[in-house]
Amino acid sequence: MRHFLVLLLLLSNMALGQSLYLSGKVMEVGSQKPLQYVNVTIPGTTIGTATDSLGRFSIDIDGFQNKKLRFSIIGHQTRNLNIADLLSPVNVYMLLSSTALNEFIVRPDENPAWALLRKVHKNADANNPLKYRTFKADFYAKTKMHITDIERNPEKPKKDSTKKGYMNLLMLENIGGFYAKNGQQKEVVKHTISNLPKMFPVNLVFINSLNPLGFYEPYYRFRPTFSSSSGNKPVFERNYVNPIKPGVFNQYDFQLTDTLITGQDSTFLVKFQPNQGKALDALKGYLKINSDGYALSYIEAQPADTIQALQFKITQAYSKAGDKWYPTTRKIDLDYPYEDKGRTAMLRMDFSTYFSNISDNIPNGEVYFDGTTRQIGNTAHEISKKEFDEIRPKELNEKEKTTYAKWSFDNKPKLKKTVEIMEWPYKLIAPTGPVMLMFDQFGINYHEKLRLGLGIQNNLTKNPRIGLRASAGYGFGDKSWKYRTSASFHITKDRYNKVTVYKRKDISPPGQQTYLGHNYLSPSARYIYFNRDGYLVDQFVKTGVAVYTRPVRWTWIRFYAENDDKKALNYQIDENTSTETNYRTYGFMLRFAPRESYVRQGIFETLGNRNYPVININAQKSFDRNGNSSFIKADFGITQQFRWKKIGTDILTLSAGYATGQIPYSYLFNNQGVERKLFGGNTNSFEAGDLTQYAYDQSITLNWIHSFGKNIFRLKTKWSQPEIAIGHRFAWSRLTTETSSSEIDLKDFSNGNFEANLYLYNLVRLKVFGVYFGLGAKTAYNYSQDFIGTRRFVVRPTFSLALF
Description:
The chain is mostly beta strands.
């Protein structure tokens, strides 16, 4: 009897632990045809399922007997039945909907969400705001940074318990105008306010390119750092396969979960997540698709990879005005975990932008597009908090108000005075007066040791037609001055079409080619690399005139004529040749960079977005001013990115050069022996070997890096998230010019230079002060027939912030 009672008790416990399921079959009224893909849900809960090919379903109703069960599918009337009235097995019949859309066709035995997405693909160009010719809007943007979900070590309680669980760090608000024209975008900030002092350029640091308008691109590109997307840092970028990209039905699982009918239109709610077993950078979330043009009216998406360190959630909302769908809201929330000595917290950043007063007409002269995506007005910082409170279109919540209150210096006169003194340098460089300071003469390299300098230029934001610049710097290692002066007349206010006269004195390694750079408002400091194990250096003085033009969008061309005087500083060409050369050069430089954009605050600018391909072309003809010799020289470089749904990203860089004539040594090509970066970063140069002795007048170079990311395999541990990249470098060159040097025995790559690379990022993730860092390694093996150096095989460590 005792054993029987124990068995009875166990069986009763098992029965109590079981869920209550309702099963049945869904069919069409009249035809009795089983309906597949019917959504069976309990409204107000996350419980739901879908019918199979025979119309069958089974759903857990335990605890929900007093609720309703909803049956919904496109083309049929939605039914809501009381669960208490249903007994298994139940047959549910659905009527054809009289509001079914004639042009909406669902193929037999097919997921109805697929038919919806095909309509979205078909109408993407008409509904994508990036494809509109013009539109403008008022905008209000809010950026917040705070630490939340704080759980402190119970052994070390905080004295001030009022701060427990939440800490305010940053509050930034902008009000202004948003403009879009033929794919170009620009925010003109008229008023800005922050809890931080004005000396902090928060509008430069916290940019809006993480959540671009329009969710119609094939990939959602997430790059949370300022590093450009190139082969040298594949770990800092992710290209998530867009769930509405054509051809992803076998990679994503789509569920049409609801249909809302409002007047003549219907809104379809489609949930998405990657199919199980698919190794790809994927998103999960849901879409709202409106039957009026089959446009996306709402998007919410986040990474499907829950182990990824930096999590995000993007939100976009659109509404129709006239015959187009325009953005009304875009948000992105970033979460980064913190764990240290029993303490845990979440560093959170929220970017929100709200649009209003949308119009498809931009009056002439209201804005000009110069590649800048955000421009801070000259007087944007002058508004007071009280004045901003009166024009703010959305009310702040209590935590946001607390951020301003806690960072206020009104009741701290000494601290307020200190901050005002610290803001004084910012006032000097802020573009409010007729002259601005430049900082293009700072640098550290092995030859100069340290270069310090300063410059001035006129305020281009007040007088965009004229540009006057002058700067000078002193190198403490070589004990010499360098300078740069120029005067420009800008035919167009965006500075892409202008005439410039210039004179410049500086140093550089011989044979290094430069391409046409970015159209920055103020020039940045030039970084020069010299190898401490041995290097050559030239001093040059260039005096000339240049004409810049932008004949088509994304293309910039520079025509120039200049006198180029060079002097070898630490080597001699040969015993009978002077260390100085004097040439007159005529040439042009071309740069093509699609959709490249900048963020500007005052005179400070940063590259906000880079796309591909990037193409550079140089050509020149030079004449010896002291003789009858001349030479022709041309080179180009192309960098392209290829993104794949399953295997990651390729970065391919192809470059070539050709020169003919009587070419001095300092004008020959030598672009391979350049910088090897610290902490595992790499350039397009070769990693192994000594390349100082190489020079050539004909060359071709191919650099390829493929980043698999985590598409090969994904470990389910936060301590190791390996990301693999492979690469290969090839160079061929030939030296046909009869040039000799008493310092070095010149060589070329006539037999080819070959190097294979393997990159292993985040092999081990370490927690340092509560933040994860990834340790890995990069390797290179040079298997060329002709090799100069001590090691063909090199291994260098990599160290980076673990974001993914």
